[in-house]
Amino acid sequence: MLFFVARRLFTAFITILVVVILAGVLIHVVPGDPITAMMAQSGSADAEDIARLTAQYGLDQPIWKQALLYVGNALQGDLGNTIRGGEPVAELLLDRLPNTIALAVAGLGTALVLGIPMGFIAAVNRGRAADFAVMLIAILGVSIPGFWMGLTFIQVFSLHLGWFPVAGTSARNIVLPALTLGVVHSALVARMTRSALVDILNEDYIRTARARGLRERQVLLVHAMRPAMISVVTVVGLVFAHLLGGQVITENVFSWNGIGRLAIQAMLQRDYPLVQGFIVIFATSIVLVTTMLDLLYGLLDPRVRRR
Amino acid sequence: MTDTTTNTRPGRLPAALRQWNIAVGALILGIVVLAAILAPWVAPYDPFKMASGPRLTGPTAAHWFGTDELGRDLFSRVLLGARLSLGIGFAAVAVGLVFGVIFGMVIAFSPERVKALLLRIVDVVYSFPDTLLALALVAFMGPGVENATIAIAISLIPFYARVTYGLAAVERAKPYVEAAQIAQAAPARIMRIQVLPNILQSLIVIGSIGFSSAILSAAGLSFLGLGVQPPSPEWGSILASGRNYISRAPWILIFPGLAICLTVLSFNLIGDGIRDFTDPKSRRRRT
Questions:
Q1: For FRET with A297, which of A167, B164, B239, B264 sits at 20 to 30 Å CA-CA?
Q2: Which of A89, A114, A144 is at the close of a domain?
């Protein structure tokens, strides 16, 4: 077990390192000279600023040294300063992180609460009308762009019914964006729950349980649902990564003051250090969550550890 | 590994169409493609012409989908939008598929240690949601149609590389590849002449799965102002410019959104149907 945990943590560390290196050298994707592009955005372009930025990014040095410099600084919690205003990127992002986490957790929770029962109903009624209906809803769910659903929710629940505020960041405001993320991603959860449960219901031990005269409710909820939930845990990581991707857009639709909204502003203003910082923080969160879920999976299912 | 190659021969396509999801998906997609092709001739108004009608009026006989904040005809704009969305989707999938296949093949034919390293890198990038990857790339390359298309194409590469690797690794272990290797054929030649034709059909099928994700990404990028720029009538950018009027003119919201949904739905239905059709496990379950 200890070896499994150590190996998993090591891979996670390497993965984060690779992402930080990639984020560090991404500045070279910018067409033309990155410094000129950055200065064009800040408005003031004197020789001193150019020299400062060149030194900060090590742009006068070979590319591997630049990557090393960015990683070294990142490991010390320094993600550089924004071009507009010169504020420390790490601080700006960390300020908004709680808002983003709150929305992600609320969205994931909604997705699970909606998706697991949907998948359960479909699997138990496999091949019947209920299964077909749930799967149809699920495929519609993965086909609707999150931002469109968000705008529709605003139109119906905020403007028409007046139940929720249109935009902002407060406890009352979280309902609609969380619902948007939850509904879109519940489709994925439902499909995964269904396929895990369908496999399990074909197992011999389920037939044994039924043959022993256990009540159907007990067979389904205890014998079948438990192992099915273990498989669902592994895919929750995948859903979470997906959800964070959708969250960037959802935060913008609902003016939710999270990292995603900040990142899009930074992208439109070409504030490259801030975008790099966003990539580092987002990728790190994704890796940390997937690793945690992997460890949890190993804890729940001993067979995984030996792989 | 399911044997997808034998099940997707052209002769079996009519049978595939009997699958309800493929049939419905193909029907919707057919309509969208037709709209995209015929847009310039079918569109009742010039999609760029302001004040084709009164501003922000709801659907009428003259303007089926209503008009937008500048009095442009929404029906004409949504029609032309099909061109942009499908065009971006097709270009991104084509470019992403070509590079993904090259990377996947090279990984499959690499020495053991190099293979492990390359696979790890692909997996790292793959774990990053594709919309985010495209967003990050566009942020650095700058907004616009070409850059958005390139970014979406790049964001699809890890997926295609992973799939190609899986298919090519299976082929690599087969005797005919071994025979070619013994005959001293160059690896590049084996990949191109021996392996590629054998996995091509599966690749085309899997290629279609990337479409829905590409179209969603394109709409998302344009909605955020990082993709297609106004006044071009891409569906996401129509939604972006209409979002300030949603209380007064909900039709600006409804029609482009429905267009995105139906297009993505058609690809998802076809993808699902093909999976049902080619996966013997799920076919057995059906009967």
A1: B164
A2: A89
